[in-house]
Amino acid sequence: xxxxxxxxxxxxxxxxxxxSSDASFSSDGLPGTGKKFLDLAKRKELADWMVGIRRKxxxxxxxxxxxFETSKLIRAELDKMGIAYKHPVGVTGVVGFIxxxxxxxxxxxxxxxxxxMQEMVEWEYKSKVAGKMHACGHDAHVAMLLGxxxxxxxxxxxxxxxxxxxxxxxxxxxxxxxxxxxxxxxENVEAIFGIHVAxxxxxxxxxxxxxxLLAGSGFFEAVISGRGGHAAIPQHTIDPVVAASSVVISLxxxxxxxxxxxxxxxxxxxxxxxxxxxxxxxxxVTIGGTFRAFSGNSLIQLKERIKEVIVRQAAVQRCNxxxxxxxxxxxxxxxTVNNPDLxxxxxxxxxxVLGTGKVHDMQPLMGSEDFSFYQDAVPGxxxxxxxxxxxxxxxxxxxxxxxxxxxxxxLPYGAxxxxxxxxxxxxxxxxxxxxxxxxxxxxxxL
Length: 446
Ligand SMILES: *[C@@H]1O[C@H](CO)[C@@H](O)[C@H](O)[C@H]1NC(C)=O
Ligand SMILES: [Zn+2]
Ligand SMILES: [Zn+2]
Prior knowledge:
signal; disordered C terminus; metal ion binding; metal-binding; IAA-amino acid hydrolase ILR1-like 4; alpha/beta; ILR1-like_Hyd
């Protein structure tokens, strides 16, 4: 952020008349503050307001870097709350500021984008856009962060530091986090927290772990070209379908024979597009997929070998191949690695909001998150927030399912956790407890 923007922000904040708030969280120490935030967030007025925001966004899903209406809605709400912000950051992104605009700076993140898929849930607020759906809960993430903003803004006079609200575009493969970072969204920030709703954890409970939580990921697309012709006269063709099939099989050996079995990795070919007729051998086949690993080195190694295997295996069948890792639109995501020093901090804060026994450790997942870009730059912590109703027998539909549904009871928990993590970070910082919070910066360069 340039000096000019700082001046503008300070002016905006300076001119505002500070009102007294209804609940204090700094006077009587930390314990119980989290519960207070949860009570505030569960108040009918605020909870209903978050539900309304979430439904509005759900009805009008927008894909990565196209979140124009979502961004507009966020800015309109921040305006109503009197919260200063920067826009655009990363095309549609918004970065809001609550507090003194002085250190310490702590950031809270929500992603805004939807997925290119058709919603199959029949309900009043079903997606109104054919082929687009909020199937990953990012609509809920925005509502929770706005809910937290509302609570925090009411308490702004007690915040001896700055809470940075990061509303980012394009989490689903587009690397919106990277763009936000490149455009300075985390300038001065000492720690960042991110929440993802989880359809396999009970509502009011959270899960995460210290260290690697989610895999790093990349994508690839390859065109395997031969020479098409009549399906009954193969000797006059160079068949790319058979060549591509061999490629798919050979790629499996990267994991089964080359990777360390104790270093979890995935290579999946998810796309296979060949000809359209029963009796025509096509000129070319396009395949595509993703690869995952928990270390930057393994990820780079996979990337190199995927290219080599595709090109050389295609050559065995007399075909040529080109491989594209699409890194312009889909940058390689680093692994999501939680800062080990923020882990006990998170546990204390979440315990205080949710009560004991609600904060769980979990196994790492092969999914990935572009939150990892933030964690490469500053200490960060990412965690999952449960949505399964207590009465429910099984889990909810998984994220990225056409039947995915958010249990809106999750919203107050997310808002309270956001508010609590940020204020506690600032308070502990003031109390001089923070040296250990930011000391053990954990990096895994790609
Ligand atoms: C592969 O590339 C070489 C060199 O450009 C070319 O001569 C050959 O015809 C190509 N083969 C196929 C099957 O496209
Ligand atoms: Zn997703
Ligand atoms: Zn997501």
